[in-house]
Amino acid sequence: MINFDYTRADGVTSAVRDRASELTAKFIAGGTNLIDLMKENVERPTRLIDINRLPLATITETEGGGLRLGALMTNADTAYDKQVSKRYPLLSQAILAGASAQLRNMATDGGNLMQRTRCYYFYDVATPCNKREPGSGCSAINGFNRIHAILGTEAGTPDRSIHCIATHPSDMCVALAALEAVVRVTGPDGDRTIPFAEFHRLPGNTPHIDNTLKDDELITAIDLPANGFSKNYAYLKLRDRTSYAFALVSVAAALEMEDGRITDARIALGG
Amino acid sequence: MTLTDESPPMVNQAPSVPATQTVTLTVNGTAVELQLAPWTSLLDALREYMQLTGTKKGCDHGQCGACTVLVNGKRINSCLTLAIMQEGNSITTIEGLAQPEGLLPIQQAFIDHDAFQCGYCTPGQICSAVGLMNEGHAKTTDDIRELMSGNICRCGAYTNIVDAIQAVMHPQPDKL
Predict the structure, then answer these.
(1) Residue B15 neighbours by CB distance under 10 Å
(2) In this structure, what CATH number is given to the domain that contains residue B124?
(3) Is pLDDT above 70 for B7?
(4) ipTM, two decimals
(5) Residue B1 within any structural domain of the chain
(6) Residue A173 lies in a domain
(7) What distance in Å separates the CA atoms of residue B58 and residue B66, rounded to the nearest whole number?
(8) Distant-in-sequence, close-in-space partners of B69: CB < 8 Å, separation ≥ 6
(9) pLDDT digit string (tens) for A133-144?
(10) Is B130 on the interface with A (CB under 8 A)?
(11) What is the pLDDT of residue A153?
């Protein structure tokens, strides 16, 4: 791990200001992925801004009848929350399909969105990786790529990337995509919202950019729309062992039924 | 190679080492003041600076669970958090579980059910089991297996570990 400085943020505004004045700094919340990447020298921040003391560990009702998940809610507390598990069981199921109990107790909801791919080559600084080091090449395309992407990589499809076939490893995010959640962020110029489908981006020609969050912005919450599809839903995850493994393929599916007819359907794919 | 006046050759300069900071950790009910560099993991602080070597370093990447400790009653991987981030929290390690009057029931159950072979993963398994019971989400044997999946045992004592936990949670497991 490289040397870095550590500061503890005491407010959202000051946290964002600190980051804006030092763009090589990084926010740290649960740390389950960031610290691991720092041990591997993949992430090399000059400073960690600890946001764990910010008042973002709450779940509240939104005006639209949905729930607002504070960015610092842990994955475990979110999945087991009475309101979440009753109104958004798809989300609870997806969260509990990921990681281990220890990691879910540490990892936060905002951090879940910000975690990086688990592509082996991304982690191995001795191998080329366009996501880690733009322009160095992709070791996965002709390498061990069992856990890599299927969609967005086929020849002839418009979204195909010839630079990167890494996936976002989250289970939670697949459910959030199906539920059409909205990401709330704060930057130096104020607050804005990002529809979930626009948050993570395909690799394209810039695989090192995972998402549409700006460097000086902080996720403060994730809004769940009023409809939680709590009657007809499923999260299916296929993996190499029954527990504590990343998905090879995952599906979040949700249906709204009226009189035996499907009136609304959501399907999100992951893994 | 001919040197030109275009740009001087790059010299890799070692970054300056930030000073250590005073970190106060509350471990097993006692507050201890340590001088730590910011990158010191909670695991390294426990083992190297507090001589609490019961917590084990297995993979150091959050994959094996040998480093499991309890923070405010909930289990975490101590290798994936910085000691400085845990100021103000109550940390319990394997050394802090047994009471003066004896072992915890789960510790005794591990002995009674032979829930280990080499024993390296055992402190993490026991802390994880205590966390599992504190958290209260395991109802069935399958739940125990699922919620203990963050603790790897390469000797393969899994069935006996599940039996030990079940014996404490449900004193009559055959009625499950």
Answers:
(1) 11
(2) 1.10.150.120
(3) no
(4) 0.95
(5) no
(6) yes
(7) 6
(8) B42, B46, B55, B75, B76, B78, B91, B92, B93, B94, B127
(9) 999 999 999 999
(10) no
(11) 67
